[in-house]
Structure prediction request, 309 residues.
Amino acid sequence: MSKEPNTTDFNQLGLSPKILDNLSSIGYKTPTEIQTKAIPHVMMGRSVIGVAQTGTGKTAAFLLPIIDRLTRVRARARMPRVVILSPTRELSDQIGENFELYSKSTGLTHALLIGGVSAQKQEVSLGKGADVIIATPGRFIDLQERGRLMLHMVDYFVIDEADRMLDMGFIPDIEKINRLLPPKKLTLMFTATMEKGIRKIAQKFLSDPIEITVEPERKTAENVTQFYTRVASRSDKDKALLSYLREQDVNTAIIFCNLKSNIPKLKSYLTKHLKAQNILTLHGDLTQHTRNQRLDEFINKEAQYLICS
Ligand code: AMP
Prediction:
């Protein structure tokens, strides 16, 4: 993930033994570049703006030090101490899954407040008490307006994928949420790009932040050939993929979809048209055990195609 070999160890970052145990049982061996660079600052209470794309390990870069801090400082009551905003339900869901893994056996809880699912259930999970709120901005505001959120104990505010938030018009919502949170809190912002608009937003939300930029590794494996195809519309993408898989002698392929919800559709489309039985899928709704199993099957060539989010 980083350009130079990362020689830092997780146990050099000051994380508690419980978190280190969790990381080792998940199978993380060394921190990624953004983790090495960001975690010590967050542990020391410095606000951070991380310019890092998905895939760099940015989620753990903010979750691990926050979990660490939460476990060290006892809560006076079970009220939210962290608010993490992301632009999409799927991303929030993924952050929630990662939180569960990293905070195992710490007793910390989270509430996932996202649109498209019952707000009632979310109110119940809030009622039980959650240390961390992971939300999309719309649903957060909705529940706040209904008086369901107690926000005066919030110490950490994370704005993930700020550039996408900007594209999707969420910035006024985030400003509103920022005003609802206590002024004295640590704010962390992550973005894939540092375009002009984002810098302005950063100035608005963060005070004296440290800026950390991580370049995604762009090296392509030697046995991979790259090219791209233009299609006239979104609906032509599946057809273009199908004809490519048919025309070229593709032995095995990993196919990435930008949305988890597209995966089953693409799977049935390819199964039907290629008469293939050996198509596997890989996404965040599967347990880690199943994910590992499927990856193994793909690596062992028991399956020809792996469709992933
Ligand atoms: P993210 O950029 O946060 O979306 O993370 C990308 C992927 O990298 C996720 O599947 C994480 O589970 C994984 N990941 C994060 N940190 C590490 C690490 N230190 N070692 C191995 N995998 C990691």
